[in-house]
Amino acid sequence: xxxxxDGYTWLFTNILWINILFAILLVFFERRNPxxxxxxxxxxxFLPGIGFxxxxxxxxxxxxxxxxxxxEKEDKGIRERVLRQGQKMVEDExxxxxxxxxxxxxxxxxxxxxxxxxxxxxNYIEFYFSGQEKFEAxxxxxxxxxxxxxxxxxIMKSDxxxxxxxxxxxxxxxxxxEVKVLxxxxxxxxxxxxxxxxxxxxxxxxxxxxPPFAPYVTPRxxxxxxxxxxxxxxxxxxxxxxxxxxxxxxxxxxxxYWRDTHIKIIGTAVEDLQWRFFKDWVFAAKKYNIQWNMExxxxxxxxxxxxxxxxxxxxxxxxxxxxxxxxxxxxxxxRIYIQTPYFIPDxxxxxxxxxxxxxxxxxxxxxxxxxxxxxxxxxGLSYIGELLEAGVRFYTYQNGFLHCKTFxxxxxxxxxxxxxxxxxxFKLNFEVNAFIYDEDANRKMVEQFNKDLEHCREITKEExxxxxxIVKIKESIxxxxxxxx
Length: 485
Fold this sequence. Notes:
This protein is α/β, with parallel strands linked by helices. It contains 18 helices and 20 strands.
């Protein structure tokens, strides 16, 4: 019996020392938000052993630089081109084709400096506001592909639309078209093991971003490739919020109608999305020395929209997409319209929205009426009260599930992509957004926002104040966890 007691004492003592060690490392070596640091200190202190495992799998950041160092080797060409453009803008030598671009050159310069985002001015955009529209356009573009198809998605499923897409890719591979498919290890966990066999046999290639070594088990579980892009022959590219699955065609009983936004781009911005795919593919496929053909097909010059492809993630020095959101809020003079399924702003975004509301800016935020992740949903509700007092208006979408990630500023700037308005998208996910500078695109997005408002219910200050105590408790607990949700 004494041996058993001594064994338990030894184990408990060592667990305490491990907790103390990780607490010291957390405080002195990781550059975290103080709120997040205190949360992890509490987890390590009050949940010894369990806290250590949680931190090991979803909390540690210190290996980021080493983990993503290889990704820095492959982007020298695009970096030089972007920096040359940025230098011209800083020295006021760059000549914009549209004088209105000059009004927003501070946002453009910021993205060049922080995200190495080339600014192109010749882009044409098509908008898709339903899954039916988006997948019809995507499958048509894949059918017409002649040289290559590069596809990167967070979630892929081998259900109805997933199987149809994979079959189409397999057919194109048999025709001699180069096909590369990249999906996230956690997002693709429901794929059948054999779903890509025919594609690979036909010559297609498939790579997984942070593949789990067992279902739901990976030391990189907190880092997810949340991007959703497809490039066809260097001529056109898709980007937006839709993943690959039947629910995005509104076939889910749980969510019903799925409201999302996706776009197709024709123009020079396609090249930047292709670079984005290239860098992710090299990292995931671990083919660091391959020769990549970046000679793009000639694109029709029928567009006039300015676009910057802005990426961010755990491998980025700056939270570039979030900084873009912040800059749009701070620079707004008339309106800021936001659609996001998850509303967990960090301190900077929260304060920017509060000040915008107090400044008389027309700030409207649209969120879902039903949660797909309850803790995230309740945490989001906890941030609304003070912003309502500041004049920010909130609406819940009642016609199904709202999954759009869109930002509209005044009458000219719009952001459409994969980044939610939450801390996970700002710090942990690999995201990509198109920042669009164009009156026509902005007008179409405002029109769609107003159409969506017809299916919304506004959250009033009076209604918010009458929340039940149970709801308030859920909000408080979820908000405490919000830095790691």
